[in-house]
Amino acid sequence: MSITHIEHIGIAVENMKEAIAYYEKVLGLACYKIEEVADQKVRTAFFQVGQTKVELLETTDPEGPIGKFIAKRGPGIHHLAFAVEDVAESLKSAEEQGVQLIDARPRKGAEGLNIGFLHPKSTFGVLTEFCGKR
Ligand code: ZN
Q: What is the pTM of this model?
């Protein structure tokens, strides 16, 4: 596996509008895109910070993964995404080393990239995502 950088940090928010205002007005970052990922029952807002993005996540359904996360743990950091060359190969490599996967094979995420998640039980409590063009 070859990780090149942190692609993004996913942050679960209760109110996207208020969260965007904080990132824009207080931190001076510009939201360059808002995208709904129907599959994940989530609306995302992106901010570029160097090579890395901040991805705000607001649920579109209380039963979706972000809705459940907030109900259980409150808003805050939800996941860490590493940029990799090849998502399928990286998932396979992690699995071979005993890591429990959420996604056995890549699926489509925001921005048209392939994504795949590792289970936080196997990653010291951090929901971990691989993200890449392949
Ligand atoms: Zn993500």
A: 0.92
